[in-house]
Specification:
alpha/beta; TIM Barrel; four-stranded parallel β-sheet; 16 helices; 10 strands; hydrolase
Length: 362
């Protein structure tokens, strides 16, 4: 008998996560404790529940720029090696409890050097936290693999330096590179030297595109920068026309992305909060899934969106009537699109994801 789809049962399913920001997933209690330990006095509240409410409501702004403002507080308490290690460790712990079996967690090292750490020291601390978290999860009977993406801020001028950091740590847990931040006025082509460096070193990268800005952002990310994946990419819907008879006609860019199997790192709740879409029910995720684009489900910022992978999947189930086979497909889409090696991807798909979904499907 097929297992009913509820938050609890979805919580039992194995999940793969490609788009999760380390500084957007802290526990509210950890933010309060780290602020007290390190003398950060800028928090809008020191009560844990009040602070959680602040992050949730401040992020639900309808604007990407305003959505990013609360990150000043999480980044503010992540300026020491101990703090970075703790946040990374707890990130793995929280994901493992939600039965995430593979995750790529991203963060911007350049935002964590105000306390005097070097970029290398920042990455070392985070990778150490991830490794310790994996070990603790395994001891608790939960196997999880966590890898890192280093991100450059698109409004800054350090992307080439951060790309080199990604390559330098590629054998120690960093599997790729990304640019993030406000899209308007900061096109990905401003960072061509970083992407060229990644390609010249046979390294992988994703680009935030098509979230707060339209098709030109996606076009540049693919045509000029050569992105392996797209962060969000919701505005690709602008290149898809639905005829009166319900048939979909794809423009040249949309066709190219589907033909090349470019993965979309879609983050439904976050996209509603930033105003990229009006509601989950109006999210283009379902249209793209039905048209067989390679869509994946992601959290983006678990603290800001008050969410988890299980919650994101449940919201899609409630909006679009998905079943277990759909959730399995989205999960396999993510594993196929991961930046680890092919044998590693295949092992997780064949030995973890498919067997455990078989039990849930019945």
């Amino acid at each position: 008998m097929t297992t009913p789809l509820t938050l609890d049962t979805i919580g039992q399913a194995p999940k793969a996560l490609l788009h999760d920001h380390l500084d957007g997933g802290l526990r509210p209690a950890t933010v309060v404790e780290l602020a007290a330990e390190h003398g950060y006095d800028g928090l809008p509240a020191t009560d844990v529940d009040e602070l959680a409410t602040f992050f949730r409501t401040a992020a639900h702004s309808g604007s990407l720029e305003r959505y990013l403002e609360p990150f000043a507080h999480t980044v503010g308490v992540m300026q020491t090696a101990d703090a970075l290690h703790r946040v990374a460790y707890e990130c793995v712990e929280d994901l493992a409890r939600d039965n995430v079996v593979y995750a790529e967690v991203r963060f911007a090292p350049e935002l964590h050097i105000d306390g005097g750490l070097s970029l290398d020291a920042v990455v070392d601390a985070v990778l150490s936290g991830f490794a310790a978290g994996e070990k603790a999860a395994a001891a608790d009977g939960r196997t999880i693999t966590v890898r890192c993406l280093v991100t450059a801020m698109r409004h800054a001028a350090r992307s080439r330096e951060i790309a080199a950091l990604a390559v330098r740590f590629r054998d120690q847990g960093v599997v790729g590179f990304d640019i993030a931040g406000a899209e308007a006025g900061y096109p990905p082509t401003r960072h061509l030297d970083a992407f060229e460096y990644m390609r010249s070193n046979n390294a992988r990268f994703t680009i935030h595109a098509g979230e707060a800005f339209g098709l030109p952002s996606i076009h540049e990310a693919i045509a000029f920068c050569g992105a392996d994946r797209l962060g969000h990419g919701v505005r690709i819907v602008d290149d898809i026309t639905i005829d009166d008879d319900g048939a979909a006609r794809l423009g040249r860019l949309a066709s190219l992305l589907r033909d090349k199997r470019i993965p979309f790192e879609m983050c439904p709740s976050s996209n509603v909060q930033t105003g990229a879409v009006k509601s989950i029910a109006e999210h283009p995720f379902d249209l793209l899934a039905r048209l067989r684009f390679r869509v994946t489900v992601n959290t983006d910022n678990r603290l800001m969106s008050d969410t988890s992978m299980s919650q994101e999947m449940l919201r899609l189930v409630e909006a679009f009537g998905y079943g277990w086979s759909d959730l399995e497909r989205f999960t396999i889409n993510a594993m196929k699109s991961a930046f680890i090696s092919f044998p590693e991807r295949l092992a997780i798909i064949d030995e973890v994801i498919k067997p455990r979904y078989a039990v849930l499907i019945g």
